[in-house]
Specification:
10 strands; globular; four-stranded antiparallel sheet; Rossmann fold; alpha/beta; 8 helices
């Protein structure tokens, strides 16, 4: 039986004006589990990721990630936690435009207090980007940039991958290539959370978590076909 990697106990995140991005969420995710976080725009998906990587803190409740109570960390401790435990994959790539693909991956190593060019190149090679490692981000296609983004997330060997709409800007071919990478990472035992609006992406994962108005709700596909189509039509 796998151990619990992520534990949320009645977690809420409220903002001024009475807005509750998350509202009493309780959730367990096991080590090595691949989970899709789904729901309409404004349902709390990105807020959940921001809590899990320590960029934000819950207003109420208890949040443990690999046994660490993230709410108790100060800013420096949270930054260290992200560097050492979490790999982040974004829809927007956030590259340094004047650095090559290899240098952008090595930059993640630098913030981890070590630089290993051979290791960084090896990660790019694994993702089919060795022959493009010398290119600037502007010289890469969208799919190539996403693979560099994944390489940057993996280079420090994190325990958990958090991906926010990682295929949102990709065509079907590149989407398939990126999801193939996530499948391989899952088989290797990485704990992966993917925020997606795409039901096809969601169905590739072990489990789907559906959020609506900050709460976990039952998957509508378990109810009836009309409900599933209505839910999918509200994704954005």
């Amino acid at each position: 039986m796998r151990q619990v990697a992520i534990r949320l106990e009645n977690v809420s995140r409220a903002y001024p004006g009475g807005i509750r991005a998350l509202d009493g969420v309780s959730l367990h995710i096991e080590q090595g589990e691949w989970v899709a976080v789904m729901g309409p725009s404004g349902s709390g998906k990105t807020t959940l990721l921001n809590l899990l990587d320590g960029l934000d803190k819950p207003t109420e409740g208890r949040l443990l990630v690999f046994g660490t109570d993230l709410a108790r960390l100060d800013a420096d401790e949270a930054a260290t936690f992200r560097r050492e435990r979490v790999g982040l994959v974004f829809q927007q790539f956030h590259f340094v435009p004047y650095l090559t693909a290899l240098e952008n991956v090595m930059l993640a190593q630098y913030y981890h207090s070590m630089v290993d060019k051979k290791q960084a190149y090896g990660i790019l090679d694994r993702l089919g980007m060795a022959d493009r490692s010398h290119c600037l981000p502007s010289q890469l296609s969208g799919g190539e940039q996403q693979r560099v983004c994944i390489a940057r997330a993996l280079v420090n060997e994190p325990q958990m991958i958090l991906a926010d709409e990682p295929t949102g800007n990709l065509d079907e071919t590149n989407e398939e290539e990126v999801m193939k990478i996530f499948r391989e990472l899952h088989f290797e035992g990485k704990t992966i959370l993917v925020v997606t609006h795409n039901p096809d992406i969601g169905r590739m994962t072990e489990r789907q978590i559906f959020l609506n108005h900050g709460k976990i709700v039952a998957p509508l596909s378990m109810m009836d076909g009309k409900s599933e189509r209505r839910w999918q039509g509200n994704f954005s």
